[in-house]
Amino acid sequence: MIRIESTRERYETYREHMQKLADIRAALAIMQWDQETYMPEKGADFRARQIATLSELAHERATSTELGELMESLDGAGELSEKEQKNITLNRRDFLKQKKYPAAFVRKLSETVSKSFNAWNEARKESRFSLFEKELGEVIELKKEETRLLGYSGHPYDALLDEFEKDCTTGLLDKVFGEMLPPLKTLLWNIEIRHIIPYSNVLL
Hints:
By secondary structure, this protein is mainly α.
């Protein structure tokens, strides 16, 4: 007789899968922090490869068939709490987004960004943009490719904004900052006047 797992058992399997994914991403974050702080310069290429490998592993786990099936079976399950259901909904959205990235692209982007950081460090020390120009160009081209992979309906940057603020668009930001600009200009003018007038009186 085939035993069918309960919703609670499936959710625990899902939770364990996501915890291991979080562990990989946490290890990645530590390696990136070390790269930006104490790592010897000659370790840059090795670290870029290590970060790329872990990024690829994280991507594979984040887009696995097992995870997709688990979330599909749990989405809308009445036995879950509101918090647990929200967790499924948000992570399923991220799952569908991550599925748009080929594993090879994830590895290439990660490795390129890591190597470009070292080039930027050198360029900053010597105040020579030419040391960073090539790597910067490669990153920009990969980010352009990323917008095409994700897809967008308005501005290309809309595809990347979602990473920082869900459902945010350049149109929304233009509207928000457009409304803020006039009062900010007035505030800046008042600040300047308050600083200028006392000194002008002294000079007079």
